[in-house]
């Protein structure tokens, strides 16, 4: 297995003056809150909305994509801690508690620690990432996420050379999560993982918003992973813990049905799910007569990510 380092990735200097302006806005807003003793709790919504709606576009945002109507992305969800259907998470998620929120970063790093979300955001550059998103169930959407590179956050913890994988863990809130409370289906908490080079890839983001607004709870607020070239189940919601590991973590779906959901889960039209074809997909919000979309290898991001899998048999490592 070839582990590429961040050096292989084209330079990611951001020159857009909006980025600096936005960072200043965040810092000023945070400073004001701290001075007046206002907690994030009270002013999060307003401040975030103001900033989130004005973030510059990442260089990976594809302008040619037709964005999925927000109503569809916000009301057709997979959130198994809450429900096994797509319709209920949007209402059930409203009782999740997401403020205050902290993220623990540990494992093979020089500087482990637990960080408040606002402290993380203060250090990161938010951008808009318009990405295709493909669920393993063969529906898809195009979402304008607001977020920052996972790699940028990992670098602040100074990964050791022994860090080969990244494990991400979702929140446990059995009081607000019916399926977690009943120990139904998956082993909770929800866990996902990436190889370190996948985690450091600039396409891999942690999202805190979508459609120019803060992330709805049902979509994984306040902080969720988005890996656009992999099936949606890799994009873990409500992240509370990030661990850098020597060995691959066992992810929730992989553990539940290892023959159906691989660790890699790269979108691949030529590798069918044991029970259905992955050849095409139904774009959310498309009409009954709209033709299905042909699914693309790596969900159309091959130019950016194919090198990560150069020497791998994608049928074996599905
Ligand atoms: N914690 C958690 N994260 C999760 C899931 C989940 O059930 N729990 N479902 C995954 C799946 S299968 C998909 S397709 C996407 C759905 O994200 P969306 O509801 O924002 O469209 O979230 C992923 N992340
Ligand atoms: Mo999914």
UniProtKB/TrEMBL annotation:
Part of the MsrPQ system that repairs oxidized periplasmic proteins containing methionine sulfoxide residues (Met-O), using respiratory chain electrons. Thus protects these proteins from oxidative-stress damage caused by reactive species of oxygen and chlorine generated by the host defense mechanisms. MsrPQ is essential for the maintenance of envelope integrity under bleach stress, rescuing a wide series of structurally unrelated periplasmic proteins from methionine oxidation. It is an enzyme of class 1 (oxidoreductase). It comes from the Bacteria. Transmembrane segments: none annotated. It comes from Methylomonas denitrificans. Residues 97-252 form the Oxidoreductase molybdopterin-binding domain. Mo-molybdopterin binds at residues 77, 80-81, 135, 170, 219, 224, 235-237. The keyword Nucleotide-binding does not apply. Keywords: Metal-binding, Molybdenum, Oxidoreductase, Signal. Pfam families: Oxidored_molyb. Its EC number is 1.8.5.-. The keyword Cell wall biogenesis/degradation does not apply. It catalyses: L-methionyl-[protein] + a quinone + H2O = L-methionyl-(R)-S-oxide-[protein] + a quinol; L-methionyl-[protein] + a quinone + H2O = L-methionyl-(S)-S-oxide-[protein] + a quinol. GO terms for molecular function: metal ion binding; molybdopterin cofactor binding; oxidoreductase activity, acting on a sulfur group of donors, quinone or similar compound as acceptor. NCBIfam families: PRK05363.1. Its cofactor is Mo-molybdopterin. GO terms for biological process: protein repair. This is Protein-methionine-sulfoxide reductase catalytic subunit MsrP. Belongs to the MsrP family. Heterodimer of a catalytic subunit (MsrP) and a heme-binding subunit (MsrQ). Binds 1 Mo-molybdopterin (Mo-MPT) cofactor per subunit.
């Amino acid at each position: 297995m070839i582990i590429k380092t961040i050096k292989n990735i084209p330079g990611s200097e951001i020159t857009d003056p909006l980025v600096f302006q936005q960072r200043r806005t965040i810092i000023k807003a945070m400073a004001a809150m701290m001075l007046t003793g206002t907690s994030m709790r009270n002013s999060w919504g307003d401040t975030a909305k103001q900033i989130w709606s004005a973030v510059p576009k990442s260089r990976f945002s594809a302008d040619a994509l037709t964005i999925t109507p927000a109503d569809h992305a916000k009301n057709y969800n997979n959130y198994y801690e809450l429900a096994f259907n797509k319709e209920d998470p949007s209402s059930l998620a409203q009782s999740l508690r997401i403020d205050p929120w902290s993220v623990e970063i540990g494992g093979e790093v020089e500087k482990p620690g637990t960080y408040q979300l606002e402290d993380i955001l203060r250090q990161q550059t938010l951008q808009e990432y318009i990405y295709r998103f493909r669920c393993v169930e063969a529906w898809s959407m195009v979402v304008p996420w607001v977020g920052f590179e996972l790699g940028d956050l990992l670098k602040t913890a100074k990964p050791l050379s022994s860090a080969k994988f990244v494990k991400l863990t979702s929140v446990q809130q059995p009081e607000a999560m019916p399926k977690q409370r009943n120990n139904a289906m998956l082993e909770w908490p929800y866990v996902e993982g990436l190889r370190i080079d996948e985690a450091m890839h600039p396409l891999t983001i942690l999202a805190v918003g979508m459609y120019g607004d803060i992330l709805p709870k049902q979509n994984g607020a306040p902080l969720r992973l988005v890996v656009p070239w992999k099936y949606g189940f890799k994009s873990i919601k409500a992240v509370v813990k990030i661990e850098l590991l020597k060995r691959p973590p066992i992810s929730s779906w992989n553990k539940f049905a290892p023959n159906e959901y691989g660790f890699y889960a790269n979108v691949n039209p030529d590798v069918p799910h044991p029970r259905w074809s992955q050849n095409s997909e139904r774009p959310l919000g498309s009409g009954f007569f709209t033709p299905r979309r042909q699914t693309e290898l790596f969900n159309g991001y091959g130019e950016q990510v194919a090198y990560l899998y150069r020497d791998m048999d994608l049928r074996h490592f599905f």
